[in-house]
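Fold it.
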Amino acid sequence: MPLWIAAVRIQNPEQPEPVLQSLAKLILRAGGWTAVGNMRDVPKAVVIAAPHTSNWDGFWALAYTVAVGADIHLFAKHSLFWFPFGALLRSLGGIPLDRSHAGGAVQQAVEMFNESDCFYFGLAPEGSRKKTPGWKSGFYRIAERANVPVYLGFLDYKHKRLGIGRRLDLSGDQEADLQVCRDFYADVEGRWPEQTSPIQFAQDTSAMETRSPNSQRRTIRSFVRRTGRLTPSQQRALVELWPSYGVDVGAAKLDFDMLFSKSAAVVLEIGFGNGDTLVQQAHENPAWNFVGIEVHEPGVGHCLLQARDSGLTNLKLIKHDALDVLRYQIPSESLQRVNIYFPDPWPKKRHHKRRMIQTEFLDLLGSRLKSAGAVHIATDWANYAEHIDAVVEQSVIFTCNERREHDGSDPLDRPRTKFEQRGLQKGHRIWDWRITKHRHNY
């Protein structure tokens, strides 16, 4: 059955639980599955389920939708509706896929959206349980034409979790939207992992094979690359100290044990500025390994000088865009903690899309953090604090363990920074968060 499920209307929680729903929950528990996520009361959406590598995927997906109380409609091949199996499918709300329909399956699905006040249309974008060159683009075209969001459903056999993950509002940039999917599904393992298809539209394989951290694909940046003036000592540091502390950009995943010549928890700081807090924390925690990412060359040079003067052996620096580094160089489930202190607030409303803390970014961090790993965030902008609260609340990967609002006197497990001091001088308040990745959650 190439298409997954179309679910309409979630059961009223005040109604008695039907026998079939109780049975579905029992089946999931017997199979060792944990069901997570929901559609957050969106009346219409496309729901994709991946990876699809086994016939069992459809069975468990159906059990999940019944268990969560969905009014289910199946959208399956017309040839499956033969007697008496067709009657059974229709009794479950099955809808035959009419491939002779003008405009094909995509248009048929779009018309179903247009005719319904509440409708979820689901499918497996791989189109087959066997490995294929890539995903079919039908789900994307349906969501675009129907003007509805896409929800990322998953079946993770490794951690025995299944359900509905994050919401994806299509941007019109297919490659950027597919990258969101890649980040989300990075740690989701199908029943037969070797049959998982690459997340790309099948006709775009050549572009996928050539993409790298140095490619020039246009993306929204969360930073402005400031030029600044390098002092002579900073210039020498970038040349002389980089071989000791620097990590060059590349497409290969980093081996942290080899990089640091020891096995230890890894802390990543994104946007370390001039490196004061990064060097201080590395000096105070010699048993941990620290990696800093920064694009501002004078700041990198200053940090190199501090690292040398402190005699640090547990610090490495990367001079590149953090998104590329996270996607291509940081291995899955390799980080214990990520620090993001006072990122650019982009205060103007038209620039809010440039803010680093977004749902897609948290999904990417979640794929790189170990189970129960933490992200520490700090800002001095009230509007950005509201934005961060909303993003964290919507996350299905993270839980907020602690949030502090203070006058600079109570930082949350971090040193004070120069950006914090500047904010305080302007009369700003300070907000700190510690959010923790759920154990094997998405």
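The chain is about 35% helix and 20% strand.
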